[in-house]
Amino acid sequence: MLVIALCKGRYLEPSLSMLSRANIRFPEDVASSRKLIFDSEDKRFRAVLVKPADVPTYVEYGAADVGVAGRDVIMESRADLLQPLDLNFGHCRIAVAGPEGAHSINGSDHPTVRVATKYPRITLDYYNTRGIPVEIIALSGSIELAPLIGLADRIVDLVETGRTLKENGLEIVEIIAESSARLLVNRAGYQTKREEVLGMIHALEKVVQCESSI
Amino acid sequence: MKAFTQIPPGTQILIGRAARRRRVLERVICSVFEGWSYEEIIPPIFDYYDVFIKGMGTGPEEQIYRFIDREGNILALRPEFTSLVAKTVATRLASAPRPIRLFYSGEVLRFEKPKGGRQREFAQIGIEHYGGIGKTSDVEVLLIAVEAFQRLGVPAFQINLGSVDFFGGIVDRMELPAGQIGELKDILNVKDQSGLEALLETLPLGDRRKEILRAIPHLTGGRAIIEEARQLVRNPRSVEALDHLEHIYSIFERFDLAQHLTIDLGEIRGFDYYTGILFRAYVRDLGFEVASGGRYDGLPSAFGEDLPAVGFSFSLDRLEQMVTPALSMPDPDAISIDADNGFEQALQHRRLGKAVKLCL
């Protein structure tokens, strides 16, 4: 049996629907139930529901053989795992944003840029490789607020349509990376449960190809 | 006071059954190494920092615990054994008859995130084979790894075998800057197809070369994969690597072991010192590799002796998590003896080699 770690929240519905098109079907109440473990109808798969940021951890440790998570979460986790397939949904960008008219990832006159973010590691790496001193202000939500009330000069956040930024008088300054949902595979499971894992990858690959050709 | 009650992160203490399990594992694996005529080497726990930099290369260097002695030398606690053994072979054993077969067992230290049952101080047991003929010694080392798994009673183990030369031969001819090769490696190491697509768009390569790079993440499997790879490459370095992998695969087939071997031409991770084959071993239901190794012909020459070298090590901390009959540790059977005036009886049992336990 293969264990699949799925994100609770906005990724859940598209993940389940993609799995079901690959003939991996879970009971209908997965999204509404409070249970955290579900077996597929044919008992070949087991889904576990976890917080998005925890998916890479479950997969890296092999508690789940495979998982679905956004590239943003994977980059931030630095987990050592395989990411063989772009599932082609949940598209967004990880970007540096600042008040309208801000043209650089640098702050004002401060020698150190203060950046508010849910992605401290991605942010630190990005500024470090550019040689810009940075002070990371780690927040867990409403990141857009930080530059508005003087908590930070810039933010690093996930941008989907850019509407939230715009409504708060912010705009993208630089794009760090494109993100979308990825299939993650534990390195050991890829070897020791090879047929099951490869079978699943191929099935999902077909679904992705099918959809992108529509 | 903190020091008296807490332990520093990354350390662990084995007691009783856990310690017995470690020693049993060690004994079983050592007996396999000795059975193939490997001799034990007990190297020092610290040496000059530069020794390990030669071995591990840049990158993992920040994981090394280093300190300064009273004369101002920079020393380091060993983060691995291979560099230490290579240095010894190139110096103390420079005139010893070849091949030189050595095994070691002991703790190494790395400042990294404890993960998968492995702390910052962890135990490695492994072999080093110096001055042998490449083809033969690669096979010897792999067969020893297989035997160790068998003796430990592990039914489902899997060796994932790759070669730095297959990939090396391909990129040699592309004349890419080192930064882009690094990026390419990072992407191939996680089999990230969409990342590869994005990178390929920025690389000044012809369609055929891009096709080859696209195929690499999929080149994993059995004999058929080697054939598939042959259709892709003509350069001598890659072709030789394929010939060699095929030779190893054939031997595994001949001894009915092929089900334990996977060829993975996208497997190019590891220390900078690898020059030929490299492999990792996994067991079912453990999320992390339990053994890794490969060929590192350049390493002894860094210490002044040009010798081919191949070896691997097991991670004992990870093997200890396996459940196999060989590792089920029953509590020892001891005869209970009343301590008052019981010494005579106890000594009698001990002379017969029986375990006793004095009851107070």
What is the domain tally of chain A? 2
Q: SSE order of chain A in H/E notation?
A: EHEEHEHEEEHEHEHEEHH
Strand numbers in spatial order across the main sheet of chain A: 2-3-1-4-11-5
Proportion in β-strands of chain A:
25-35%
Structure classification of chain B = alpha+beta
Question: CATH homologous superfamily of the largest domain in chain B - what is it?
Answer: Bira Bifunctional Protein, Domain 2
Low-confidence stretches of chain B are none
Overall number of structural domains of chain B = 2
Number of helices of chain A: 8
Question: What's the SSE blueprint?
Answer:
The complex is a heterodimer of chains A (214) and B (360).
Chain A: E1 2-7, H1 12-21, E2 37-39, E3 45-50, H2 55-60, E4 66-70, H3 71-77, E5 82-86, E6 92-99, E7 113-117, H4 120-129, E8 134-138, H5 145-148, E9 154-159, H6 163-167, E10 170-179, E11 181-185, H7 187-192, H8 194-212
Parallel strand pairs in A: 1-3, 1-4, 7-8, 7-9
Antiparallel strand pairs in A: 2-3, 4-11, 5-11, 6-9, 6-10
Chain B: H1 2-5, H2 17-35, E1 39-40, E2 46-48, H3 49-56, E3 66-68, E4 74-77, H4 82-90, E5 100-109, E6 121-130, H5 134-151, E7 157-163, H6 164-172, H7 178-189, H8 193-202, H9 207-215, E8 220-221, H10 223-230, H11 236-254, E9 261-264, E10 277-283, E11 291-295, H12 298-302, E12 309-315, H13 316-319, E13 335-338, H14 343-351, E14 356-359
Parallel strand pairs in B: 1-5, 7-9, 13-14
Antiparallel strand pairs in B: 2-4, 3-4, 5-6, 6-12, 7-10, 8-9, 10-11, 11-12
Helix pairs in contact in B: 2-5, 3-4, 6-11, 7-8, 10-11
